[in-house]
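Re: your question from the hallway

Yes, I did run it. Sequences:
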Amino acid sequence: MADELEQLYQTTYQAVVRFLYRKVWDADRAEDLAQEVFMRALSHRPEKPRSWVFAVAANLARDEARAAIRRRRHLTLLSADPAGRPSASPTADEMVEDDERQAEVRLALDSLTARDREVLLLWDAGLSYPEIAERTGLAVGAIGTTLARARKRLVDAYERQHDHDAAAHS
Amino acid sequence: MTMTPLHIPEHELHAYLDQALPRSRCVTIESHLAACPGCRSHRDATAALRDRTTLLLARLTPERKRIPPSLEELERRVSARATAPRLRLRDLAWAASILLAVALGYAVRPSARAAKAADAQVVATSTAPAPRQPVVSEVRTPAPPAPSAARPKAARASHASVPPVRRDSLPAQRAAVAYGDTPAAVGVEVSTDSLPPETAPSAGLWRTVPWTQAEEQAGAEPPRVNGVPVVEVQVKRGDGAAKPVTVVAQQLKSGQLITTIEGPVDDVWALLSRRGDAGDTAGAETLRQGTRLLAVTGQLPADSLRAMVRRVNAAMRVR
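Structure:
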């Protein structure tokens, strides 16, 4: 049992970080949350640890989205302190600092429906069709259809975005 | 020759390429593909789309920042969390030990010179990794997670347990605590004695120095967040021409501590990962400049820390 979790940790930790990163868009938070996920797995010892881990990760990411609002408030307080005034709004900075190519994919991903996005991210995190079905409540037979649509939309949205950006730059 | 008249629907091509179909279904599909050029080119287009998606998503991979802790380490944290209330008791005991130390400080003051001489010897013989357990501990009762005599209790809890500096609770040792702009910000009695000259730094040893001596010790002013009171400066000199590692702890008005670490990439990583192993959950933001790494840690949101890293970096570039 412990061995199973150990192996899962070795093989899945980075995938969980990536999965979380694509939801919270903060590498450090993603790592914190991924560690939290595995700490919970250690105390709960779930029966199907793989899909359990991603279920908890998805929940934490959702809570995180709520917490982000609180943190933004905190940052405002901090910047009101003359000693700790950041140079500009962090989100603006973030966007500049972000790899531009990454920002384009991120926008494309955001344009998908929540369900398509979830299925695509779970697939990319290494879950099987049955595991994705279990996580999302979809029928196993519907996963291929969902993935087909999600992939097409992601690439289409990215290309539109990319062409648009390229036109704006020229 | 038509083997399977029905063309393969798109979703099934995806499932097929995703290896999510039973083998028997794959055989049917493969037979059809072999005979149907239309479905073959459809399959190729689907495979290209699939690859393209994978490639695009791969861009959304976070920069690897920290060394992941081992599962055993996570297990330790789980059990530490279960016993959290006891930790608080320990903090109280530790706070009491500081009060005791301060009180003793007044009583022992005349003999501080002698104590310092003894200190010097210990400093000279202790090498870097001697964390947690103080070498000399006449005064302190329990060993705190991140021992620092002059750190206020509230702030201490959030401080990164960075370099293993040996410290004890004698008043002379508290000379090691330096203040930047507003000494009154930290409400603990501080001795203004400077460190005795016989504890001159040698390579590889961590030294806690007053801010006024920090520049001299480090060769340059240690990077820090401007305008925030400095609580503590620690310097590790490199061998020969190697640049030092500096750790500057500062206290925000909110009472929270932030720590700015600057040094060779490997050294800073080592500190950050040791911090993680010690169960410190404070966030860390880093910025690499060639072979050097700049890090700011603290119990603050990542975007705040990131803003600080940028400020420190900008200030360093101006210099």
